[in-house]
Amino acid sequence: MWIDTHCHLDAAEFAGEEGDVAAEAAQQGVEMIVIPAVAASNFERVAQLAQQLPNCAYALGIHPIFIPQAQECDLAALRSAVNAAMTDSRFVGIGEIGLDFFVPGLKTQAMRDKQEFFYSEQLKIARDFDLPVLLHVRRSVDIILKYLRRIDLSAGIAHAFNGSFQQAEEFIKRGFKLGFGGAMTFTRALQIRRLAAELPLESIVLETDAPDISPVWVHPGRNSPDQLPRIGAVLAELRGQSLQHIAQATADSALAVLPRLASLS
User: Fold this and answer.
1) Helical packing angle, 109-128 and 141-150, nearest 10°
2) Long-range contacts of range 25-30, CB-CB < 8 Å, 24 or more positions apart?
3) Residues paired with 215 in a beta bridge
4) What percent of the chain clears pLDDT 90, i.e. is strictly above it?
5) Contact 192/183 with Cβ under 8 angstroms?
6) Would you give the end-to-end CA distance of the chain in angstroms?
7) How confident is the model over 222-249, as pLDDT tens digits?
8) How many domains does the chain have?
9) What CA–CA distance (Å, rounded) separates 159 from 96?
10) From the CB of residue 180, how many other CB atoms can be counted at a distance below 10 Å?
């Protein structure tokens, strides 16, 4: 069994093809796809997709790239939406949330402060509902971890992890899993491949981040969740382990960190 822990199936690149894309992934053995929201405006859409497609689940959150347009009332909308979703078996956590200190427009002090405020408030929502988080950690791992030390959470996933071994250990100590996907398939991605090869397998989950972060054989084309087994094969090669072992271990890790997902698998 394969689980794609991070796929933006609601993205414009999939418009009108969502059902076909999810079905093709299922044919390739991807039994579950987690669709994280990115803004209050798409909370309803990700929930609808998860209801319509048998191998999909969803998370709710405000992505750091959408923070410039976000308002404080969106946090109230998120809390309300999460409260309503707690009775929905396809709702699995808070995400995608976090910090992005790579995109130029997000690096000003004012925007960093706004990002940190929204991140902190969304962590509190996750804490209050005892939910895991799907974290965006681009160029921001140390600050991400600073807030996790302040706000105690059940667990989560550091999506598209590309930090140090020491930072990885900090996440793992807090019950977090680390997400690996298409970036791992590039031979020049030496640090990511070292992490994937040497970190404890029980701390790794797989993801596509489709339609983004395409694997080397698709790049620069549109990524899709049906690529997950082939991405998993790269992880198996890096670790010198069987494909079946990697599939089962990463799926088990996904179900452990996203316990509400287990009821659907």
Assistant:
1) 40
2) 25/55, 25/224, 25/225, 25/226, 25/228, 26/54, 26/55, 27/226, 28/2, 28/226, 28/228, 28/229, 29/1, 29/2, 29/229, 29/247, 30/2, 30/3, 30/4, 30/55, 30/225, 30/226, 30/228, 30/229
3) none
4) 96
5) yes
6) 9
7) 999 999 999 999 999 999 999 999 999 9
8) 1
9) 9
10) 28
Which structural domain, as residue segments, surrounds residue 35? 2-263
Q: How many residues does the chain have?
A: 265
Cβ proximity of 134 and 260 under 8 Å: no
pLDDT in tens, 20-64: 999 999 999 999 999 999 999 999 999 999 999 999 999 999 999
Strand partners, 56: 33
Model pLDDT, residue 154:
81
Q: Residue range 125-130: average pLDDT?
A: 98
Instruction: Give the per-residue pLDDT at 265.
Output: 67
Mean pLDDT across the chain, nearest whole number? Answer: 97
C-alpha torsion angle, residues 220, 224, 225, 230 (rounded to 10) = -40
The CATH number given to whatever domain includes residue 243 is 3.20.20.140
Mean pLDDT of 127-139: 97
Sequence-ordered list of residues with C-beta below 8 angstroms from that of 184, at least 6 positions apart, any chain: 192, 193, 196, 231, 234, 235, 238
Q: What's the CA gap between 204 and 200, in Å, rounded?
A: 7
- Please state the three-class secondary structure of 150-194 as a single string: HCCCCCEEEECCCCCHHHHHHHHHCCEEEEECHHHHCCCCHHHHH
Q: What is the DSSP letter of 260?
A: G
Query: Is the Cβ–Cβ distance between 95 and 88 less than 8 Å?
Result: no
pLDDT (0 to 100) of residue 105: 87
